[in-house]
Amino acid sequence: LKQVFNKDKTFRPKRKFEPGTQRFELHKRAQASLNSGLDLKAAVQLPHGEDQNDWVAVHVVDFFNRINLIYGTICEFCTERTCPVMSGGPKYEYRWQDDLKYKKPTALPAPQYMNLLMDWIEVQINNENIFPTRVGKCE
Q1: Nearest CA to 15 among 61, 47, 46?
Q2: Cβ contacts of residue 69 below 8 Å, gap of 6+?
Q3: Helix, strand, or coil (residue 121)
């Protein structure tokens, strides 16, 4: 179990919403509706009077946390030796391009690809221009 929480692995701590913010309240509402066994379509609908961007941001961060947790539990089984290619089955190979280090689509082992992907997503989530956290504070 220690390996799952090893900082050198791709597991990352959960992103959290600051208590007292509107997004924190939306997150609590989203969790309550998803955990109550309601119709999924109804559970993800924008609550009346809420900002659509805040609602989407809450779900993006929640999705990132869930994928991160799932990947953290399987990453020890997918090594550069056992997963030399990032693929989606025999017909699809994913290649990494970030226009910084990887200027052209580059084939990478799955763990390296996933590390780059999770880092990239985390940068996007932490970008105040994309996901502002100071907007919509509850009073």
Answers
A1: 61
A2: 11, 14
A3: helix
Task: State the residue for tokens 């763990």.
Answer: 111
**Domain boundary pick from 33, 48, 77:** 77
Binding positions for Zn(2+): 78, 83
Closest to 88 (Cα-Cα) out of 114, 65, 68, 64: 114
Backbone angle region of 89, left / alpha / beta, with phi > 0 → left and psi within -120 to 50 → alpha: left
pLDDT, residue 71, reads: 87
My answer on whether 53 and 1 are in the same domain is yes
Same domain, 119 and 99: yes
If you average pLDDT over residues 70-99, what whole number do you get? 92
Please state the separation of Cα 62 from the chain's center in Å: 7
Name the one residue in this structure whose structure tokens are 């290619």. 85
Instruction: Give how many domains the chain has, as a whole number.
Output: 2
Over 50: is that where the pLDDT of 137 sits?
Answer: no
Q: Which residues are annotated as a binding site?
A: 78, 83
> Which run of H or of E encompasses 62?
helix 52-74
- pTM equals 0.65
User: Which domain does 115 fall in, by range?
Assistant: 79-133
